[in-house]
Design brief:
Helix 1 crosses helix 9, helix 13 (about 275-290) packs parallel to helix 23 and helix 21 (about 435-455) runs antiparallel to helix 22. About 75% of the residues lie in helices and about 0% in strands. By secondary structure, the protein is mainly alpha-helical. The chain is globular, with a radius of gyration of 23 Å. The chain has helices at about 5-25, 30-35, 45-55, 60-70, 75-100, 105-115, 115-150, 150-155, 160-210, 215-225, 250-260, 265-270, 275-290, 295, 300-305, 315-325, 325-365, 375-395, 405-415, 420-430, 435-455, 465-485, 505-525. The mean pLDDT is about 85. It has 23 helices and no strands.
Length: about 525
């Protein structure tokens, strides 16, 4: 083990931890609003940093670089199309959420369809976090750290055992951070690490290109742009993990769900001090997504020219970092990767306890005629976080056995949960009389049918296209049920504004600029320009 790398890693991790503690030290979590929503006081930088770095985690850093190495730049579509989805959410969904004064996205579904649907969706969220989000973040973090620090060699253990140990170390640290810091500490560390990822996103490609050019960065860039040019293509074919056609079908739906419905993402925005701050924060996150290929994809492209063969392609990012970076910088980038794992893990834990306490446990106690104190609810939330953390740490090591690439696996499993929820949300938004039975039927039909297409029947259709097809069919099914059994009274929004809902005046100008850059990114990384 290189002790300089380890020292540098501990130094930068410690700095972020101390600054996060300092900014949140005055928080006394006597209320749920303080623990879950930072008293709805976050400015646009904290909102934007929280959104960006909760999204950019070890799963995306490891997974996207792996696919850029094994295939091409088509994987960048996940991040680029997020810009359009975020801007739509900023314009249409966030104003409604803040007008309603909701605490969780199932709160809207409860208001629209009734308490039963709200609880059902809360349970689906929790299952998704426990079996997919939290384990995948821990697993990818463990893979990254074993690649960076070679713990298998240091501890004289096999790869399987090493992954178990690292997962439990990271899970324990993440759980403690979430329990002690709440959302304010998570958002602060997200913002600090957001600045760090931009610096690291510039450093690692620079060092990689200099290594590739044998000390001359421009020579390295020449090699990157002229050799293996097929890897520079973002216009995916049917043979790639992300065919270009999927951008207009299932990927758009997945991104709309993720940025507009996913609790651990939306919770970052619900904690903003006003609508203007939330919309500005989303614009900051959009800018970050446009820059993110520097860290998420470019190292994988450089690795194509450095490593002719890797036994475990998931280790392409950490292996490149440890090879081309001086020890001090390697430790800094390791700290970014560690922070990326913990911030998403912490946000997932915090949002899980938010869903459980506000949508399941608190209504249950009230139904039994008891009024739980805020202190009791916070204690219960912390116990729940410990429980799901343990479950996630037990599940995470088994991701090592998945096929077809780690990142593709994560996105495919997400399909069981994300678009079904977005579908009933969408119908709830565009109609007023579709009843709860239509939402319940739609959820069951979508999840069961999608499961059959992924586990029993091989339709030879990309899973993102299948999600889009099922979205259309499920919408039709729900509308049909709504026609047969309409609600007696149409749904009406119940306004309960907790913050100022005056929108950001210049948002449309910045939105156009961001969308233009998004389109240009696809043009540059295409056979029209770089991938000739």
């Amino acid at each position: 083990m290189n002790w300089t790398i380890l020292t540098s890693f501990l130094f930068f991790t410690g700095v972020v931890g101390l600054l996060s503690w300092y900014k949140s030290r005055k928080n006394r979590f006597s209320t749920l609003n303080g623990f879950f929503f930072a008293d709805r006081s976050l400015g646009f930088l904290l909102v934007g940093g929280g959104l960006l770095f909760t999204n950019i985690n070890t799963a995306t850093i490891i997974g996207e670089n792996e696919l850029a190495y094994t295939h091409n730049m088509s994987v960048m579509a996940w991040g680029m199309t997020s810009v359009l989805a975020m801007l739509l959410v900023s314009e249409f969904l966030m104003p409604m959420y803040l007008k309603l004064g909701i605490s969780t996205t199932p709160d809207y579904l409860t208001a629209r369809y009734g308490a039963g649907i709200g609880k059902l969706v809360s349970c689906i969220f929790l299952v998704s976090y426990i079996i997919n989000l939290l384990p995948s973040v821990l697993y990818s973090g463990a893979v990254a750290f074993n690649g960076l620090f070679h713990f298998s060699d240091v501890w004289k253990t096999d790869h399987w055992t090493t992954i178990w140990i690292l997962i439990w170390i990271m899970g324990t640290i993440g759980c403690l951070y979430s329990l002690l810091g709440g959302l304010k500490a998570i958002s602060t560390s997200d913002t600090l690490l957001g600045f760090g990822i931009f610096a690291g996103g510039l450093l690692l490609p620079f060092l990689g290109l200099r290594y590739l050019g044998e000390g001359n960065m421009m020579q390295g860039l020449h090699i990157l742009l002229n050799n293996h040019r097929e890897h520079l293509n973002s216009i995916g074919t049917a043979a790639d993990p992300i065919p270009f056609s999927t951008l207009f079908t299932g990927m758009l739906l997945v991104n709309l769900y993720y940025w507009g419905t996913e609790q651990y993402i939306v919770q970052q925005v619900l904690a903003s001090r006003d609508l203007k701050s939330s919309q500005q924060g989303i614009a900051v996150a959009c800018l970050g997504k446009l820059i993110s290929p520097l860290l998420l994809n470019l190292p994988g492209l450089i690795a194509v020219h450095v490593f002719t063969h890797l036994d475990n392609t998931a280790e392409v990012f950490p292996k490149l970092d440890s090879l081309v970076s001086p020890p001090f910088i390697a430790g800094y980038i390791a700290a970014i990767v560690f922070g990326a794992a913990l911030t998403t893990f912490n946000a997932g834990l915090n949002s899980s306890s938010t869903l459980f306490i506000l949508n399941i446990y608190k209504p249950w106690t009230e139904k039994r005629g008891r009024t739980a104190s805020e202190k009791h609810l916070i204690r219960t939330a912390r116990l729940f976080e410990i429980m799901i953390c343990l479950l996630a740490m037990f599940i995470a090591p088994f991701i090592i056995f998945v096929k077809n690439g780690f990142y593709t696996y994560v996105q495919m499993v997400n399909g069981f949960f994300n678009v079904p929820i977005f579908t009933i949300m969408f119908i709830g938004l565009v109609t007023k009389r579709v009843p709860a039975k239509a939402a319940a039927t739609g959820l069951a039909f979508f999840i069961i049918t999608y499961a059959l297409t992924q586990t029993v029947f091989d339709l030879h259709i990309h899973f993102l296209h299948i999600l889009a097809i099922l979205f259309v069919i499920t919408c039709g099914l729900m509308l049909f049920i709504g026609k047969l059994f309409p609600m007696a009274e149409p749904y009406q929004l119940q306004i309960n504004t907790l913050v100022d809902i005056k929108p950001w005046k210049n948002r449309h100008i910045y939105s156009c600029i961001l969308l233009l850059i998004m389109v240009l990114m696809f043009i540059v990384f295409s056979p029209l320009v770089l991938a000739k």
